[in-house]
Design brief:
The chain is an alpha/beta fold. It has helices at 2-15, 56-59, 99-106, 138-150, 166-175, 187-190, 227-233, 270-277, 305-318, 389-397, and strands at residues 45-51, 64-66, 69-70, 85-86, 93-95, 119-121, 134-135, 152-155, 158-159, 201-204, 214-218, 238-241, 265-267, 284-287, 326-332, 368-371, 380-381, 385-386. It has one domain (2-84, 136-409): 3-Layer(aba) Sandwich (Alkaline Phosphatase, subunit A). The strands form 6 sheets. The protein has an 8-stranded mixed sheet. A two-stranded antiparallel sheet has the order 2-3. Strands 4-7 form a two-stranded parallel ribbon. Helix 8 (270-277) packs parallel to helix 9. The longest helix is centred in the N-terminal third of the chain and has 14 residues, at 2-15. The protein is globular and about 50 Å long.
Length: 430
């Protein structure tokens, strides 16, 4: 099954490509491993930075890590022959990135539905139609390009773990599953942890064929194991840095019953910088943007805000004694409705957790960068995976058991992007 799955990834990439070049989580405050001054045999700190709503073709169009290493992007849609147009990160519209939006764009693998999606537009009534066959001008992505060139490596074959919006994607980020949820609903948060809210969330019918049909709405009040439970059980420290606006997918652990009141949850993002400066970095940190720091369309006031925020997080670690013991993984939670030319791999019946296939697999490609002194600088990684590979990295680094959800089907623990035997690369500040 594992070999068949990897083969399916490769087949889909070839066909779709045009190469242009249960703990309660209430562990004590983080007691970090002291920063290392020499190369470790193992990483001691993993920082996961999650940005928002961009596809690979849109955000990293034309990216090259070196003269002979360029990402798999296109300037013309190979199906509809529509040229990609430059559209700012601060565009005043947000394309539909719901599950139904994915189904429209994917169109049973024909990849020809881009002109049929609607957008949410600032100052206009719904629905409005705007161009999604687009790329971000390079002047606005310069810091991201540099991050993936001098201090890290870009993957051009990382797919979103689900075919829908942010909340289920963020659940996949910490658990390798979403409990079946497909929409952005928050019963636990809005019910103050009591499941009192009666709004219902859409679920994917887990017995339906890919890309899955929506059915059986339920009150979104479930409980399942996360990577944080495995870390706490092993006596390792973790923090989830996010503000706590009610009804926010940034508050994702508050959608899981046993983590609702965890003291490690909802630590303001600005505290991450303080923890690094005070040598109190946990073993695993998840860091979310605040407001305009997000690359989410229509939230962007200035195109520089999102890249500047990511740079501040990465610089904090890179310029600290933690650099030689760290890996920073930066990725975007969903494609945001923007064009991408590569056909997502279709599942071959796995994973069979919960006894049924998971038709959420997979969404379109999203940007995925590993920043570390052990990153393979000057290369672009073409190993097909989902962003759940981040969980495999955490599990392998700290000797944790697998969650047994989507993590068990990832091709590696980012081994193709990290070389722990190489001499640590000095950090170049952004």
């Amino acid at each position: 099954m594992y070999r068949a799955r990897c083969a399916a990834f490769a087949i889909c990439l070839t066909a779709g490509s045009l190469l242009t070049a249960c703990s309660n989580g209430n562990s004590a405050a983080p007691a970090s491993v002291p920063p290392g001054a020499v190369a470790p045999k193992n990483l001691q700190h993993i920082v996961v930075v999650i940005q928002e709503n961009r596809s690979l073709d849109e955000l990293f169009n034309g990216f090259c890590a070196s003269t002979n290493q360029c990402a798999n992007t296109v300037t013309v849609d190979p199906v509809t022959h529509t040229p990609l147009s430059p559209v700012s990160l601060a565009a005043p519209y947000s394309p539909d990135h719901s599950h139904s939006g994915f189904v429209t764009e994917y169109d049973n693998g024909k990849m020809d539905g881009w002109a049929n999606v609607i957008s949410a537009c600032i100052g206009q009534p719904l629905p409005c139609k705007e161009n999604v066959v687009a790329y971000v001008p390079h002047a606005e992505t310069a810091k991201y390009f540099k991050l993936a060139t001098v201090d890290g490596e870009l993957s051009d074959a990382t797919f979103q773990a689900n075919s829908g919006p942010s909340l289920p994607a963020h659940l996949y980020a910490i658990a390798g599953q979403s409990g079946g949820y497909d929409s952005d609903r928050w019963a636990l948060i809005e019910g103050n942890g009591s499941c009192a809210n009666t709004q219902r969330a859409e679920q994917i019918d887990m017995t339906s064929a890919y890309p899955g049909t929506v059915g059986n709405p339920v009150i979104p009040c479930k409980d399942f194991q996360t990577i944080f439970d495995l870390l706490a059980k092993a006596g390792l420290s973790w923090r989830y840095y996010s503000n706590d606006p009610l009804t926010s997918f940034y508050s994702v652990t508050r959608n899981i019953q046993h983590l609702f009141d965890s003291p490690n949850f909802i630590v303001p993002p600005q505290q991450f910088l303080q923890d690094v400066a005070n040598q109190n970095l946990p073993n695993v940190a998840f860091v979310m943007p605040e407001g305009n720091q997000s690359d989410h369309p229509t939230w962007v006031s200035r195109p520089s805000d999102g890249p500047d925020w990511v740079a501040s997080v990465v610089n904090a670690v890179g310029e600290s004694p933690y650099w030689n013991t760290s890996a920073i993984v930066v990725w975007w939670d969903d494609w945001g409705g923007w064009f991408d030319h590569v056909v997502p791999p279709r599942p071959s019946g796995e994973p069979a957790w919960m006894g049924k296939p998971d038709p959420f697999e997979y969404g379109f490609r999203v940007p995925f960068i590993v920043v570390s002194p052990y990153a393979r600088i000057g290369h672009i990684d073409h190993t097909a995976r989902s962003f759940v590979s981040t969980l495999r990295l955490i599990e392998k680094t700290f000797g944790l058991p697998q969650l047994g959800t989507l993590d068990q089907y990832e091709p590696d623990a980012l081994d193709s992007m990290l070389d722990m035997n190489q001499r640590p690369i000095p950090y170049t500040p952004l």
